[in-house]
Amino acid sequence: MKKINPKFNRYIYLGVTLLAVFTGGMLIHYVFSALFGNLSSFRSFFSALNSALMPVYIGIIIAYLLSPVVNKMDQYLFIPLMERIIRKKKEKVPAIARGLSIFCSLLLAIVLLVALFWMVIPEVVNSISSLAQNMPQYYNNLVEWGTGLFKKNPHYAQVFTDVSKTVFQGAMSWVQNDLLPTSNKLLSVVTDGVVNAVSYIVNCFIGLIVSIYLLAGKENFCAQIKKILYAVLPDHAVKGTLSVLRETHGVFAKFISGKIIDSLLVGILTFIIMSIAGVPYTLLISVVIGVTNIIPFFGQYIGIIPSAILVFIASPTKGILFLILIIILMQVDGNIIGPKILGDSIGLGSFWILFSILVFGSLFGIIGMICAVPVFAIVYRLVKRWCEKRLIQKGKDPKTENYRKEIVRKKKKEEKKEEK
Questions:
Q1: What is the pLDDT of residues 255-277, one digit of tens each?
Q2: Using alpha carbons only, what angle is made at residue 356 by residues 353 and 357, rounded to the nearest 5 degrees?
Q3: CA-CA distance, 396 to 40, in Å (whole number)?
Q4: What pLDDT shows up at residue 196?
Q5: Rounded CA gap, 94 and 100, in Å?
Q6: How many Å is the maximal CA-CA distance in the chain?
Q7: Mean pLDDT, residues 365-381
Q8: Nearest Cα to Cα of residue 291 among 312, 277, 271
Q9: Residue 293 near residue 299, CB atoms below 8 Å
Q10: CA 98 to CA 74: how far, in whole Å?
Q11: What's the mean pLDDT in 182-199?
């Protein structure tokens, strides 16, 4: 009997593999079709699963944000304190210190949030109510200002009056029918009860409990993940994965905490500067600008534009003053405050920041816009390292600057040829 040529073995193996993959894919398709019927049912299943896991998501976010605070309290406060108090059973010191750190961190976070909402939300609601009441007067002031501005051009004055009337009617309808009722509901939730937010409160409460468990056993959870990785992947792959995870954690922790601190400072500085300048609705626009500043790149514009319109309607001269002051403040934040706090945690050019925000924002909304920059920064670093490694293996220069110089040299040579 004639033996099969060994060269055909790999083709036989490839054919069997493709057949197995095709068969498995068809089987999975039929199983999911039988279970879920159609794609809409499949989406509804994952939507229900996502809703069920919402407390876990909230718990992970709380634990991640509070983890640095817990670590600092462990290191500098409760472990030294417990070591002085408990002299016999030293093995109990870390557990007791961790429990006290978690309790104090959560208590501090809750007190700060409640105080912030209690002080800010009523003032914001009062500002919105005042805006609704004073809108007719603001409209008349705006019309008088526009009429005086276009005094020598009656046609433009009439166009300005018609446009401002249309805008005023739309703004009044939005404020009275949408903004004011929403703010009153928000105030009632904060001050009177949580009847309309029971499910959200329950999710937050369960998420708080989840965060306690995560903070209490975070070292154990990390060890279990590491153990699983070593069980599933080769050693060199585990080392690479852990390195990427550590770097991702470093970038995220520094970026998110830095952005929160930066936005808080921007909100406080906005409030101080606008209060001194006598700009109306100071607290409202300070909250809007501080919150939207968390979103990289677009956040400043998202906060400044509606705030400027609001101030301009109340007083055109104050609106112009507000724009001048806020532009100066944003320049100070972008060139001094932001770089001092964030440092080189991003390492991305302006184009890639814009690109990442557009892509992630379109896919995941506001959360995507906030997380876009650190996520894309990690992807950018990994791709850059892979390219440099491949270039070194090929014996080529991995530095981008040298390629840029080469392009410039070629361009100059072409220009000289054209001149001749």
A1: 887 888 888 898 899 999 989 98
A2: 85
A3: 51
A4: 44
A5: 10
A6: 107
A7: 81
A8: 271
A9: yes
A10: 6
A11: 51
